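Weekly modeling sync, notes
Attendees: S.R. (lead), two postdocs, one rotation student

Agenda item 3: backlog of single-chain predictions. S.R. asked that every request posted to the team notebook include the full sequence so nobody has to chase files. The rotation student volunteered to paste the first one in as an example of the format we agreed on. Action items at the bottom.

Example entry:
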Amino acid sequence: MQQDKNTSGEKNDLPGISPESRKYLLDIAREEVRRHVYGEPPQKLVYSDPVLKDTWGAFVTLKINSELRGCIGNLVSDKSLPETIVEMAVKSAASDPRFPPLSAAEFENVSFDISVMGPLREVKDIKDIVIGRDGLVIEQAGSHGLLLPQVATEHNMGVPDFISQTCLKAGLAPDAWKRGAKIYKFAAEVF
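Predicted structure, as returned to the notebook:
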């Protein structure tokens, strides 16, 4: 698990994406999924914002009528942010094992959320976890699970429940965090 060595925890190190670039990223995610659903070739990505040239991990979440329809991402990437976003958008639509591939009929009703990931920081004290700001990764014995920051707020979770749900996502017992599982937190820029 790649992590930032600073464990003090408060600096989030996020890119600070402008409103115009956020709109661009949402537009290219939607367009790439549309092209995929209709069997068209990928789009050519053109962007000038220098922040977008950097490499950031990202998750793309698809919802229909506020219900999850797909979510895939990565914590780190070696590609530019737009390249990462379009790749994760298509994977969310076509490869999330919890759902069948997105159909053309569903595409018309799908909404997109993008979460750009900050670096991981190991949690030494759960009092350092802030609901709504921090996402979590749990890791133990080769298993790991991740929940984005917005999951806790959308489901009205407190810190212990958020940690337990992340353990379950990892395929671990809900109290694995009390028995040696490592907890990491990260900030995410969500739009």
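Discussion: group reviewed the output briefly. Helices lie at 19-37, 50-53, 81-94, 104-107, 149-154, 159-169.
Action items: rotation student to repeat for the remaining queue; S.R. to check formatting next week.
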